[in-house]
Amino acid sequence: MSKQLRVAIVGAGPAGIYAGNILASKYPEVDIDLFDSLPAPYGLIRYGVAPDHPRIKGIVNSLHEMLDGGHIRFYGNVEFGKDLNLADIKQHYHAVIFATGAIKDASLNIPGVDLEGSYGAADFVSWYDGHPDFPRTWPLEAKEVAVLGNGNVALDVARVLAKHADDMLSTDIPANVYEGLKKSPVTDVHVFGRRGPAQIKFTPIELRELGEIEDVDLVLYDEDFPEGWFNEDAEGVTNQHKVMARIIEGWREEQHEKTDEPASRRLHLHFFASPVEILGDNKVTGIKFERTALNPDGASVHGTGEFVEYPVQAVYRAIGYFGSELPEVPFNEKLGVIRNEGGRVIDESGAQVPAIYATGWIKRGPVGLIGHTKSDATETIENLLADLDNLADPATPDSADLLATLDSRGVKYTNWNGWLALNEYELALGAADTSHVERERVKVVDRDEQVEISRTGAAV
Ligand code: NAP
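Above: inputs. Below: predicted complex with NAP.
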């Protein structure tokens, strides 16, 4: 008979839930406790995916089924390193898998980056997604805004900034976010890529959406499209690139033939613009770029020595996320990931640290779509199971004992039933909304309120 295994997973986003589900299906004799520092599960889906992306938010349904099956026990509002440490985990489990993602902004080292009005995209995303640990208000005072980066996060940020608030009302945005967006005086959102339109990191569905925003005109610039700008035979060109090139060409044609009424807001796509300085004394007043040009490899760029400035009152840096270090867990500061080989955590010398594993963005860095996390989790779980004989039995193989310890520390943890109560509460808030738009859910933002509803099962 196989030994009964006990595994803790830290991080209840898609990466942690997929890992738990794959582990339970490959090794049924397992008890899995899934911890998260937030009171509610789903991590990036609840607090990273843009509210107007219901298709992606819909992944929650399959994650819900995985947690509702009873094989994985969810405990929220438990922070690793504060409420729970590695010694606790070793005492109660054979192994731990860290799936804590990447929620910080990668840093951009240019002058002016700390001026008032210069923001990290990750912080803005946390605000509009109602993350409990972020301020409730956001200074949406700029008429002209720059968004740096040509990945999907840049598109999310640009879209949310450019859209009229009423067009966001059918989503799950919290009331404070709707109120904030409603007052925004924005007229022009400029997205800047440091490489060309053929080197974008967007995906086709997300790009196409930009052309469909109500009362927002898309603006492209001929100077960013050198003759033969898209070479479909170039190395690394995928079908996705070909689709996106067609979308962009379609927009360019439409733009040249455009005769209808101009929209009240514009979304500009600029390319070959590498940011060199954010301008302003105390507050952002502009941004300076060096124009770039493609190198012969058809992928990288060099500075041309030509500089150009744009007047903007806010800059959003969407140039990638970065992972956060966890206490007692080896970390690669350069890459922002837990040191690992195939999900097995290793120390600086490359030696395996027994019983500690990683998966998702904290394992491989913040790239790839949510689905990619599954193959990542499969690799980690296969390696964990291959190590089974070397995993030491815990002294207290008992979750009740760990929960008693959390209670004794005053940790107000939430559980799966608590989430079901909070979920019902948010759905009821959505149904009770008196605006004329159908709202499926209104998120509760405040952490204490979420904990209270989860722990008491309070109804609206
Ligand atoms: P990303 O796809 O890696 O894009 C980062 C962008 O920032 C790139 O265009 C990069 O340019 C640029 N950049 C990096 N450093 C820069 C610098 N110093 N100056 C100017 N530009 C710089 O990252 P992301 O947008 O954060 O997205 C992370 C992952 O989540 C991606 O896999 C993305 O597809 C996924 N995601 C998906 C959705 C969705 O709706 N499906 C939404 C959000 C995120 P270079 O290419 O030149 O390096």
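Residues 53, 56, 108, 148-154, 156, 193-195, 201, 203, 206, 275, 318-321, 366-369 surround NAP (CB under 6 Å).
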